[in-house]
Specification:
This protein is an alpha+beta fold and 389 residues long. It has eleven helices and 17 strands. The strands form five sheets. The protein has a six-stranded mixed beta sheet. Strands 13-12-1-16 form a four-stranded mixed beta sheet, with no helix packed on it. A three-stranded antiparallel beta sheet has the order 3-2-4, with no helix packed on it. The longest helix is centred in the first third of the chain and has 19 residues.
């Protein structure tokens, strides 16, 4: 029995390291080389105007929550107002306001700690509206048409580990951490609704852990008659998946390294350290849409927006725009790089070629441009005279 317990502890600690990643240094992910240059060249837009707000409301997804889930909250009213901010110079601000947080949004050493309390939360989702061309096949710098991307960020008080953790890993992990409260604040949970020039939804991109997945309308998702997608929130981890009624296991990894990508794409064994997300929709949530400028601390805060904790990977995150690698920040890279289908040999071959050619994190996105646009065109023609690749 003791041997089994020791093995379980070892498995749990290994999984902890696999999911958490390296411990944070004095700074955090916002200080990764490349971000400063990208945001200097691509300054954040202001808040959406009246027409774009109406468009975002028209296509706002329906989010399905599992039973007992608190749901999305108001970032400033329900989260930031309850806690304290310590600046890089050691100044403590209790119950900080939006103004306080924005005043220190470029302080990479600033740390906010949330202290739960107050009134019942108000469900809010934060929306932005952007226009972009999606890279033309073979010409990464040339746009292929104009698309409107409506992005919806949900805010959750805490993020937990995937509900599909095996008991062998979960039992010892519970001895050192709260699996439901792995780290404070989860605001990378985002749904990107992609509209064609005629205003019709053509794709849905969802942030899942440290990667994104893109689903084409007519191939793997479809909006309702009113143009709104149905999206499930995973138990404990809050990750977003296309809606499926009933309890469903979803393949998940923390980072898409080579072995993890092979598993996710259906061409490799399950990594020893992985755990499925579980969705089990119980109810939809009524929420308000809020529109903040891209420069707001919600998006741009460089410090820690949650308590700093001793175990690796449990520190609070920076602002919501630090959701992926700097090389993948352009919207075309996020949308095209997330377009891959489990078991699709063409996707797998393009990934392997981009990796072998040393094309970098955005290489696969560039390689997927051609098949994305071909399949999109075929689906727009309702597959008449064409077939999906």
């Amino acid at each position: 029995m003791r041997c089994v317990y020791m093995i379980a502890c070892l498995a749990g600690l290994l999984l902890l390291c696999a999911w958490a990643g390296p411990a944070a240094a004095d700074g955090n992910f916002s200080q990764r080389p490349g971000f400063a240059e990208y945001f200097a060249a691509n300054p954040p837009a202001g808040a959406a105007g009246p027409a774009d707000r109406a468009l975002a409301r028209r296509h706002a997804p329906r989010f399905h929550l599992p039973a007992g889930h608190e749901g999305p909250i108001d970032f400033y009213r329900d989260y930031i107002a309850h806690g304290y901010l310590v600046t890089g110079d050691g100044v403590r601000i209790d119950g900080p306001t939006a103004g306080d947080l924005n005043r220190y949004r470029e302080d990479a050493r600033a740390e906010f700690t949330h202290v739960p309390g107050g009134a019942a939360p108000r469900p809010v989702v934060y929306a932005t509206v952007e226009r972009t061309g999606l890279w033309a096949p073979g010409e990464a710098d040339r746009p292929a048409g104009e698309f409107t991307v409506l992005t919806y960020h949900l805010v959750f008080r805490v993020s937990g580990l995937p509900a599909g953790l095996s008991p062998l890993a979960a039992v010892p992990l519970r001895l050192v951490a709260d699996l439901d409260d792995w780290h404070q604040l989860d605001h990378y949970t985002a749904a990107f609704v992609v509209l064609a020039a005629d205003g019709r939804p053509v794709a849905l991109t969802l942030q899942q852990h440290n990667y994104l997945r893109t689903y084409l309308v007519g191939e793997s998702v479809k909006p309702g008659p009113d143009g709104r997608f149905e999206v499930d929130v995973a138990i404990r981890s809050n990750e977003l998946y296309p809606h499926v009624p009933g309890r469903t296991a979803r393949r998940a990894v923390r980072f898409l390294d080579h072995d993890a990508r092979a598993f996710m794409m259906g061409f490799g064994a399950r990594p020893m350290m992985s755990a499925d997300d579980i969705t089990d929709p119980d109810r939809t949530v009524d929420y308000e849409l809020a529109f903040l400028p891209g420069s707001d601390a919600f998006y741009s805060f460089q410090g820690f927006l949650g308590e700093r904790r001793s175990l690796p990977g449990r520190d609070g995150p920076p602002g919501a725009r630090y959701n992926t690698l700097p090389e993948l920040k352009p919207l075309p890279a996020q949308i095209l790089g997330g377009y891959w289908r489990e078991g699709n040999e063409g996707d797998w071959a393009r990934y392997r070629n981009s990796r072998e050619n040393g094309a970098g994190p955005a290489g696969f996105a560039r390689a997927q441009a051609a098949v994305f646009h071909r399949n999109l065109g075929c689906l727009r023609r309702e597959r008449k005279g064409c077939a999906l690749e």
